[in-house]
Design a protein that fits this description.
The structure is a homohexamer. Chain A has 9 helices and 10 strands. Chain A has about 325 residues and is of the alpha/beta class. Chain A has a single domain, classed as Ureohydrolase domain (Arginase, Chain A, 3-Layer(aba) Sandwich), CATH 3.40.800.10. In chain A, helix 8 links the parallel strand 9 and strand 10. In chain A, helix 1 crosses helix 9, helix 2 runs parallel beside helix 3 and helix 3 packs parallel to helix 4. The two termini of chain A are about 20 Å apart. In chain A, about 65% of the residues are buried. Chains in contact: A-B, A-C, A-D, A-F, B-C, B-D, B-E, C-E, C-F, D-E, D-F, E-F.
Amino acid sequence: MTRYEPKSSLHSPRFCGIRTFMRLPHVETFDGVDFAVVGIPWDDAVSHRSGARMAPEGIRRISVMLRPWNPAQNVKVFDHLSGVDYGDVDIVPGYIEDTYRRIEAAFEPLARAGVVPIAMGGDHSVTVAELRALARVHGPLAVVHIDAHVDTLDLHFGKKYTHGTPFRRVVEEGLVRPERSVQVGIRGPNYGPGDYEGSRRLGYDLITMYEIEEIGLNAVLRRIRARVGDAPVFVSLDIDAVDPAYAPATGTPEVGGFTGREILALVRGLRGLDLRGADVVEVIPALDPAEITAYLAANLMYELITLLALRRTEAGAGA
Amino acid sequence: MTRYEPKSSLHSPRFCGIRTFMRLPHVETFDGVDFAVVGIPWDDAVSHRSGARMAPEGIRRISVMLRPWNPAQNVKVFDHLSGVDYGDVDIVPGYIEDTYRRIEAAFEPLARAGVVPIAMGGDHSVTVAELRALARVHGPLAVVHIDAHVDTLDLHFGKKYTHGTPFRRVVEEGLVRPERSVQVGIRGPNYGPGDYEGSRRLGYDLITMYEIEEIGLNAVLRRIRARVGDAPVFVSLDIDAVDPAYAPATGTPEVGGFTGREILALVRGLRGLDLRGADVVEVIPALDPAEITAYLAANLMYELITLLALRRTEAGAGA
Amino acid sequence: MTRYEPKSSLHSPRFCGIRTFMRLPHVETFDGVDFAVVGIPWDDAVSHRSGARMAPEGIRRISVMLRPWNPAQNVKVFDHLSGVDYGDVDIVPGYIEDTYRRIEAAFEPLARAGVVPIAMGGDHSVTVAELRALARVHGPLAVVHIDAHVDTLDLHFGKKYTHGTPFRRVVEEGLVRPERSVQVGIRGPNYGPGDYEGSRRLGYDLITMYEIEEIGLNAVLRRIRARVGDAPVFVSLDIDAVDPAYAPATGTPEVGGFTGREILALVRGLRGLDLRGADVVEVIPALDPAEITAYLAANLMYELITLLALRRTEAGAGA
Amino acid sequence: MTRYEPKSSLHSPRFCGIRTFMRLPHVETFDGVDFAVVGIPWDDAVSHRSGARMAPEGIRRISVMLRPWNPAQNVKVFDHLSGVDYGDVDIVPGYIEDTYRRIEAAFEPLARAGVVPIAMGGDHSVTVAELRALARVHGPLAVVHIDAHVDTLDLHFGKKYTHGTPFRRVVEEGLVRPERSVQVGIRGPNYGPGDYEGSRRLGYDLITMYEIEEIGLNAVLRRIRARVGDAPVFVSLDIDAVDPAYAPATGTPEVGGFTGREILALVRGLRGLDLRGADVVEVIPALDPAEITAYLAANLMYELITLLALRRTEAGAGA
Amino acid sequence: MTRYEPKSSLHSPRFCGIRTFMRLPHVETFDGVDFAVVGIPWDDAVSHRSGARMAPEGIRRISVMLRPWNPAQNVKVFDHLSGVDYGDVDIVPGYIEDTYRRIEAAFEPLARAGVVPIAMGGDHSVTVAELRALARVHGPLAVVHIDAHVDTLDLHFGKKYTHGTPFRRVVEEGLVRPERSVQVGIRGPNYGPGDYEGSRRLGYDLITMYEIEEIGLNAVLRRIRARVGDAPVFVSLDIDAVDPAYAPATGTPEVGGFTGREILALVRGLRGLDLRGADVVEVIPALDPAEITAYLAANLMYELITLLALRRTEAGAGA
Amino acid sequence: MTRYEPKSSLHSPRFCGIRTFMRLPHVETFDGVDFAVVGIPWDDAVSHRSGARMAPEGIRRISVMLRPWNPAQNVKVFDHLSGVDYGDVDIVPGYIEDTYRRIEAAFEPLARAGVVPIAMGGDHSVTVAELRALARVHGPLAVVHIDAHVDTLDLHFGKKYTHGTPFRRVVEEGLVRPERSVQVGIRGPNYGPGDYEGSRRLGYDLITMYEIEEIGLNAVLRRIRARVGDAPVFVSLDIDAVDPAYAPATGTPEVGGFTGREILALVRGLRGLDLRGADVVEVIPALDPAEITAYLAANLMYELITLLALRRTEAGAGA
């Protein structure tokens, strides 16, 4: 069976060639594929700066810097995995519900074929559609939601679907298991204490940045792992969880966020979870002159892919 | 009756103070108001780069450079007019039809009160809603549509309302009189000759940039004036009508467009028409490091306002 | 009595409307006003990059992201306070002493009316004029001066008033009580040890960044609170106190500064002081493509305003 | 036989998907292919600003704006042609002669298979290698060299191969027929009259910008067509031929160049020539915040491709 | 006697070495010097965007592109001239009158030594001080003032010295001969017809851009040459005379200005005048990502220097 | 004997004058010179983004912010040292081996004269040539190599000299003493464990960022000092050792690097070593809109120079 891995930059310079994620083959097949990177260039549902529709392009562009050995986890990712760049979902500009249907149509077959989707938003509203597709296959999932914002408004501008509401919708639609789920990194000015209480009432464990500063990242990781347990899990990472110094290019930044090393440690610390899908959202390349936000996003996707490789190793080791 | 005019920059430096269009008072009244600048920060319906939602803010920011005497037309605009910055329409992110209703609700009372709206997009899809409001008051209008693109697709991404379809919709809805209307500046790669024929079949006089280069701007102006005649008219100016050198900050640029002096001459040449409303659309401040696109847009709005002042003078002179 | 609070972004998207600080009403009244945000767009007195004159505009632009509940301090700010955006002082380009007179004329009536001014520079030379006005009303003030630089030169380029001299002038003019005042965050290459000694001789407690790295922020906060005590206090925050990674857009950056979380903790830690005024200075929007510096500045202003709200709560609670 | 044409942007938004030139299939085949777009990301041989190695990526990114009907020439390009994005040549950073070998190895088989290469530099030194490959197949070619600079130095920094020398080398190596060739658009400060005389002594017809301003573009086109005649021809277009207002993002700009409309007219005016290959070089995306240079470059490539389509039509019409 | 000329870029790449104007020696001597480039980094007196203090640095940086033969005028400049980069005047931030004294002190000895100063602003207020120095040596001068704005306000913000007043001050102080002087390129919104009448009452011949569009550049040049005659002349060129497409990086842009080719032709057309000094002002490098404004400014300085060389040739030829 | 020190910015504003490093005299002499800043504008050998050829210019531009007293080390640098800006090496674009010869020719006489070179790259390939020159004079040196990448590939793109291979070459050529040398800060995706093992097999002590996070900076410093001992040492600092938040403007960034305060502490902690030369490489000004990368690089050079001053003090104190 064909195995898919990145083109090496040792002989072919990485700045040569069509830009795909990490120089992976752009193939629209499920055959022999363990994970697929998928772009969702939708940015209509945002409450401030738009431009995240260009994130898949921007992340691909700088992701050619990535290489197959992850020294932080000491694993050669493609010794264990075969992966592709599946391209983008054709979204429908200005029509969120049509766009949701397109995303669902793209993700459900991937999930059915056992391919783990690693998605690049787009704005955070896309997670609803991804989870609809995945829950149809895997049942309700645990979610590790890493973000500055709870995104659990009921109505936003009088509407149910925006980038401020997805994590309420996915509970209401029965797509996630809130008792197995956490929201991490939450902070910043909001409308009132009800914003946080709303999340907790939905069943999430909400871990604010203020609490993280007190208890430390290791405690947070223990709490996440205890809560998620062996449930199939989806990781949804809004780049604005990270401090604007490290991730300036996003639509609704919040000061006082994770440093680069912290967010990397957080994702690496999810090692062992039963990852069924993930997304990294809200990158705006037009605000990223040196591509540092897109490159951090690409690395976080790489760390998520690494988790899959590690799980294979450990599964193999356990066998 | 109160008259509204800009704050002078002779004593108060123009970089001091809250940014309104041209330093006009920000007043939400119709009383004693001849024209009102209105922002429509909607950019969801675009086929390439987003970001025009920030255009009203970006245009206001540099519009403080404008001053009350227009030497090209030799008129002191506020000797004849009273005008305000009416603020923005509260759009609904991700929902074009709700947004249309909000725009209509804002524009209809303005029109009824005899206030001429000078709108700043947003993307070009907003014109449908503006014309709905105006046509309810004034009946169907002539339109001078200045643009690189015909914007008369039927369906775009399978949808009726996007920034590629408004000038078909406004004919279908009976809001414009195509036999009194023109499309000017059209050019650039397209799907096929049917794109232009579609416009002509709707009844527009389509004047391509290629034809303008041959016959010259004066002939074009004669043709426009003959066609529009004394019909009440709406001018809709997509900044991508202008060459990217002069207006780089737009979502779907086309090379080979008007120079700055040409587009100014084109708008000035509309002197005498019975202007009932106008919009300037598709400016994206995030792509405009030196604000030259926003400043050209602000000047074109100023020239449109000047047309109103001139009409008053001439009407007065004629009385 | 009218109370002034920000427009909610829950229904009206924050990118809609005239930009005022935090979407506060732009009102030039003292009636029923607890605090007033005031811009001072002066940048002539700087020793390197100019452009801070656009800071009030740039900070207002991104400050629309702020919302009324501060979770770090757990207070709904506008349950306790009424505040406005008072607009900008009309400065006099090229003439610092005339500009000082304009600033004094704007600030003194505010102070007399019991309105706490939260100013946005401009460059740091403006603090002299603010303190002249405030000291006339409140008598000499304690100052918490957060900065990379001491700003206590005697003559700079042979002149008494530049952005390198204000904290000497305010002592000489008897506007501050140096024995109640501190300079925090000082660091970076300088002319000689005399630069620091000069500050100490003026009576300031000077806490360098090097010392802060050793003793930690909590010790610093205890020292500040002990020194200031219950004196009426002015907080003057030069954004270059913050590391260039977090605040790149300033004229005279210094490496090795506060992180975003540290500077937020520093300001939050001033809780309980008797704040009579504050300024945040030296932001240059033209160097801030993703607006991260302006947004940090806006948040620091928000934390300063929050201190006022907390003091009200505590005062109320104590009653 | 398979025919290759761009994906339509009418249903799939152009900002969705892996970026290839004009959304053409990325296929490495010659079968059924009339033209192939090829990137050459080499920028080491430049005399001022580097960064043109990213041009193929940057041009692809914005080229998704292009559509299949060229209204200026009134031809549906893909009714007559099948084309692909062939990807990039793997260059060898820091080693120009190795890089030349790689380019030759890529281009010769294309030419042998009758595929017309439309190349994207890279810096102008790459043309030598392209012409080596093409001349091996087609014999010496006429060249239409559109540029601000003659690029006919003998030694540059003591070396034979830099971006200042290619049009001397190609004559010396017998790759071009100078008596059939022209250099157009030449201007700007230089070392001495010998710079121009050198070109003329090599046999080129050198048409300066100063002469073009006098005699007009139509005369220039007549002169080019008369000189080239029916010889097989290569068009080499350095984007710095265009004025910096229209093409700011290049390494060695010269003021006083072609406008966008002029350069488009110049390329369109080559209609009828027997085009065997072309390149557009010296675009630097890092200097192109609104992508206007890259988009003009993409359009010029599109016009060159259109020339091929027209030749097919006319040939067909003549049959 | 030592002759000073630029370092050649044929062997030493132009991007190597300390940046001086055109790679001229940085020498503070008058001996054997025909012209001296002098920077005046003052930008405090501006009415909108600041940042022109960095213009000398920015212009020097890109001026290394210039080479010694001017093909438009067909002269090898340094066959006839010896020139240096004299460095910058040490201005006094925030104090315009002190700064004037420094400029005068720098320029008067240059003029006395027969060295022609070619100055780089800074903002336009610096011209007053330059002309004070030159008039002391040469008597009152004719001025060719190329600008979008008349700069003949009496008081600006209540002050006599700003960038809006210099061309009134120089007449009042008897430094220029208005009957021999012109203002060219004037346009754009202003306060009222009095703005232009004021200039004419001072004695200037005012040629608006609108008039230039009608009568053409050749007629303008004839009018300038007739008016100036054989008077010693100073050319003062505000870069905002040029259209924002060609010169975006300036503080108070005006749409509808000169193209690059027009402004070059205008300066070249001054051939034969008795040039005693010149300045190019109001460039803001922070707004110039591709350095096109600074490069046009550098070329205009080069054309001014070329005029000196031509005058030598012709004088020599006449001998 | 002449002593060379920076121009003071207390009277002459730092934004006035030709830009040299730290406003040091630009003198090409060895006489009375302790250290010389030298630029090496070479960027051809890079594996991703080019543009580091402009680093010497960009670092000089912002380095004018530096002042002579280093408070972190409490030393007035120029009480102990005399230093100059020696200008740049004339590199040969496109020819790495010729460029190496030019670098060697420039550095060897400096080293022979006892002048310590503080170099600014260019890309990291330049270090080979610097060490060739220094080793000829001082014998093999210890190296403290601070970088995200090991740079010890054997062949890169089939070639021996690129920016991925220098630290293998310098061992092979006998220029360094690997048993006295360390590589610090190494991290990020790579080809495989062999990348790190290769370095260790060459004899380097490799300290990854992951290890540094565990053991802390003080332990690292002890390890470095123990290893280097009293060997003559060269410090080679690739700016990508620093986190992209602090140093965005580099060609091959890696997330998870040093903060600004950490990298400063690391360099300051080298106090006491016998420093014979240093370089700071891989800064790309075109990606650095607020100059924060260049300013950090300038500060790191300043800290390296400070080490020389401290060594003099201590040597003196010891005498």
